[in-house]
Design brief:
Layout lengths: L2 E2 L8 E6 L5 E12 L3 H9 L11 E12 L2 E12 L2 E12 L4 E8 L2 E12 L5 E11 L2 H29 L11 H6 L2
Antiparallel strand pairs: 1-3, 2-3, 3-9, 4-5, 5-6, 6-7, 7-8, 8-9
Helix pairs in contact: 1-2
């Protein structure tokens, strides 16, 4: 079973950050999903950026430019080549991961964005499954690309989470009880 969305996770939150004149500055989307895999396995899957082109078709190439480890902390800089419809771009981001707290934060270094930030949080649930909180905030420098992003903002987060969920089904052992209602536990993590 790929992903379960409990009642407390069902609605993705999408916000537009606006400038003083009312124009959209950045689009932020949040996805929350219970996955039937262990949090450490999902953390490792998301941190394994080199394998993204194998399961996210929009990422055509990925290379790690710099990588450092300090105990449970990983800091890396990676360059991605992406293609969506008629657009092909390249961008560089910095990834900071903390294995103890199961957090991954990504920030923009260079490329077509004015803003690109995303955050992953992997919460262990009592049955061994994981509550994944994913947030992405983005703004393109190019107005046409920004309009494309705004028009697809609701789909973008769901598609990305769906790709990771499907990859987890292939790479990670199952964990948790799909029949167990963990809504109260999930609500307490909000």
């Amino acid at each position: 079973m790929p992903g379960m969305i409990s009642a407390s996770c069902a609605t993705p939150a999408t916000r537009n950050w606006r400038a003083a004149d009312g124009s959209v500055v950045a689009v932020e989307t949040r996805e929350r999903l219970r996955l039937l895999h262990a949090p450490d396995d999902l953390f490792e899957l998301v941190l394994d950026v080199r394998r993204y082109p194998g399961f996210i078709p929009q990422i055509t190439a990925m290379r790690v430019l710099k990588e450092a480890h300090d105990g449970p902390l990983t800091d890396l800089t990676a360059e991605a080549r992406v293609r969506y419809k008629f657009v092909a771009e390249r961008f560089t981001s910095r990834v900071r991961a903390d294995a103890v707290h199961r957090t991954i934060d990504v920030s923009f270094v260079s490329g077509p964005f004015r803003v690109l930030e995303n955050a992953w949080r992997f919460h262990a649930l009592s049955d061994g499954s994981t509550l994944v909180d994913f947030t992405i905030k983005a703004e393109f420098r190019n107005a046409i690309l920004q309009m494309l992003l705004e028009g697809n903002r609701d789909r973008a987060g769901r598609i990305l989470i769906g790709k990771f969920s499907a990859e987890a089904e292939q790479r990670c052992e199952p964990a948790g009880d799909p029949s167990k209602d963990l809504a109260e536990e999930i609500d307490a993590l909000s």
